[in-house]
Design goal:
Radius of gyration: 21 Å
Structural class: alpha/beta
Order of helices and strands: EEEHHEEEEEHHEHEHEHEHEHHEHEHE
Number of strands: 16
Number of helices: 12
Strand content: 15-25%
Largest sheet: 7 strands, mixed
């Protein structure tokens, strides 16, 4: 496999090392439109609209690729974005100089995961070529994957695991990269140092949780999964050593009788944070990482400047408070990364990570898929087959 280092990554102007700069190649002018699911305003499920003739996406930077979407999947962030969550921060990222109109995000296409085929490459892309089967997680400030085609930066894309269909592959990128960010990038765990460590996964039966359980086991950790009783069989199948039913009694008391943990991943948040850090080994480098943070909410509520200030005060005070008690407190976020997807693909191809799919919908059933996800209690991912639109 080619090394990604063969091309220089940086900003929007990705150039092959040593190659002279060249002009941009854009996609041909659309002879027609493409089908997409979009929203024109924020709200509940009724804001979803099927558009038959959305403009085909064009390559605007030399490190971009156009992907024909074969399958996509939904994540909780899609529900949140449909309702306007994070709009302040995401609009700042989309248009930092405010060159466009105030509501430039509409019509907005949701969906973060894609598995499909490369159709066109920018001039600086040497790692992929048209016809390659790839997967990716598209950042939330970009147009999403509930459409026939999507544009991604080359450094967000990876070759699809050969052992998976597009439907299976589409279930993994966003949750995989989110769990990878929390466990590896923020938590500092990896294949070399994870063996024998005790990991606790709170909210283990969702997309991120099922991936995190498998990643911990792939790296040799002892994994305790917290979920409801109807997901306990799934957790055991994924390799969890201990499974705790949060409905069978006081969860805090159930966990306190177990040996202390080296790492906790919290997909639940809320009151859990008040007692979960007491389950960590003190003064040993043990870390609590939560994916439930007030960052985007603060910016929506207070504006960019005050929201960032409030966020900084919150994370700073909590980090210092728990550091004085001998444990590390951290926040984690999804981070798009083709190189990390390369590593995940290796784990998938070796059989150490498998997709966990709750239900598959056709492209015409996208509103039903949103309602399914909104109902909660998911056991894995909700996937959309885009290529079969009927």
């Amino acid at each position: 496999m080619l090394a990604r280092g063969a091309a220089v990554r940086g900003g929007g102007l990705l150039r092959r090392a040593g190659a002279p700069g060249r002009g941009l190649r854009t996609s041909p002018a659309a002879r027609g439109g493409m089908p997409s699911w979009v929203i024109d305003r924020y709200g509940r499920n009724e804001v979803l609209r099927f558009a038959r003739n959305m403009a085909l996406p064009a390559i605007r930077f030399p490190n971009e690729v156009v992907i024909k979407v074969h399958a996509a999947s939904l994540n909780p962030i899609d529900l949140s974005m449909r309702s306007g969550y994070g709009a302040t921060a995401l609009n700042m990222k989309r248009d930092p100089l405010k060159l466009n109109s105030e509501e430039n995000e509409f019509p907005l296409t949701l969906g973060r995961d894609v598995s499909g085929v490369v159709m066109e490459c920018g001039l600086s892309v040497s790692y992929f070529k048209p016809g390659d089967e790839v997967w990716a997680a598209i950042p939330p400030w970009k147009q999403g994957t509930l459409s026939e085609f999507v544009v991604a930066s080359g450094n967000e894309v990876s070759f699809k695991p050969k052992c998976l269909s597009h439907t299976e592959a589409a279930s993994l990128p966003y949750v995989g990269l989110t769990a990878w960010s929390a466990i590896n990038k923020v938590g500092g765990l990896n294949q070399k140092n994870c063996g024998g460590k005790r990991l606790l996964i709170l909210g283990a039966s969702g997309g991120v949780g099922t991936f995190a359980v498998q990643l911990g086991k792939a790296w040799g950790a002892h994994v305790t999964a917290v979920c409801s009783s109807d997901a306990s069989t799934l957790m055991k199948e994924l390799g969890a050593d201990d499974v705790i039913d949060y409905k069978s009694g006081n969860l805090e008391e159930q966990l306190k009788i177990l040996p202390l943990f080296d790492f906790i991943l919290d997909n639940v948040g809320g009151a859990t944070e008040k007692w979960a850090l007491d389950l960590l080994k003190k003064w040993s480098g043990a870390t609590y990482v939560t994916l439930v943070t007030p960052f985007l909410i603060n910016m929506d509520r207070l504006g960019v400047a005050d929201g960032m200030l409030q966020t900084g005060v919150t994370i700073g005070s909590k980090t210092l408070k728990h550091l004085c008690k001998g444990v590390h407190y951290r926040w984690a976020f999804f981070m798009p990364s083709g190189p990390c997807l390369d590593e995940i693909a290796e784990l998938v191809n070796s059989g150490k990570i498998q997709p966990v799919i709750d239900q598959v919908f056709s492209f015409s059933e996208v509103p039903k898929a949103f309602l399914k996800l909104e109902g909660g209690h998911a056991r894995g991912k909700t996937v959309i087959n885009v290529i079969n639109k009927k």
